[in-house]
């Protein structure tokens, strides 16, 4: 039984670590592309909305197969609204970007309320949480790009991303010493996930 539990913990931690690593890398790449002028903020906004929309649709289909039909229906309704907000169209000015971002964030908040209160131990919902957190940080990077006259990747951002990466590594390295057999769901690792994203959020603010 102990070996089975340890295997479960390792599997969950590995999945979490991979998602967090990918998020950190994508944010780093986005900031560098915008700073070097390799991508326009308006075009990149459309790109990340489309990417997030595709991923949202994929997860919605998986979650829809859940036996928890009443909860699933509620979650899908919120996700449908969010998908509609993602497809409004191109934001060619700062004001249009801000208006779209406000509606999208509101839609994401509605999705998160359903997820976190009723549906949190489903692994696919964890994937959705990760996509939401990652997308919010990408929106913040783009918001700064629209707002700042000089957008550059500063040392504070780089060091913050290193701290995020260290937190992700610690999540894996400290598993044997830190985790109990009772920690076998995604909810059990909520604090570790939150800490890793908090480091990324702090890094973004230093751009």
Task: Give an overview in words.
The chain is mostly helical. It starts with a helix and ends with a helix. The chain has helices spanning 2-35, 41-64, 69-86, 94-118, 123-147, 155-173, 175-178, 190-205. It contains eight helices and no strands.
Could you list some keywords that capture this structure?
207 residues, mainly alpha, 8 helices
Number of strands: 0
User: Unreliable runs, pLDDT <50, ≥5 residues?
Assistant: 1-7
Count, helices: 8
Radius of gyration: 18 Å
Main sheet attributes: strand count, strand direction, barrel closure: none
Helix-and-strand structural type: mainly alpha
Q: Judging from the principal axes of the Cα atoms, what is the shape?
A: flat
Q: Which sequence of SSEs, written as H and E, runs from N to C?
A: HHHHHHHH
């Amino acid at each position: 039984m102990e070996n089975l539990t340890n295997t479960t913990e390792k599997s969950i931690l590995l999945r979490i670590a991979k998602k967090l690593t990918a998020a950190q890398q994508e944010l780093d790449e986005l900031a560098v592309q915008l700073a070097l002028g390799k991508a326009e903020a308006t075009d990149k906004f459309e790109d990340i909305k489309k990417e997030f929309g595709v991923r949202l649709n994929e997860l919605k289909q998986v979650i829809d197969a859940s036996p928890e039909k009443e909860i699933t229906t509620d979650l899908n309704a919120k996700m449908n609204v969010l998908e509609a907000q993602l497809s409004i169209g191109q934001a060619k000015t700062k004001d249009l970007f801000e208006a779209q971002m406000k509606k999208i964030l509101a839609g994401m908040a509605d999705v998160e309320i359903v997820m976190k209160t009723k549906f949190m131990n489903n692994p696919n919902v964890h994937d959705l949480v990760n996509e939401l957190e990652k997308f919010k940080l990408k929106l913040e990077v783009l918001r700064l790009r629209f707002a700042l006259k000089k957008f550059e990747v500063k040392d504070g951002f780089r060091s913050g991303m290193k701290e995020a990466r260290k937190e992700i590594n610690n999540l894996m390295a400290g598993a044997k010493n830190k985790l109990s057999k009772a920690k076998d769901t995604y909810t059990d690792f909520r604090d570790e996930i939150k800490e890793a994203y908090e480091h990324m959020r702090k890094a973004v603010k230093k751009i």
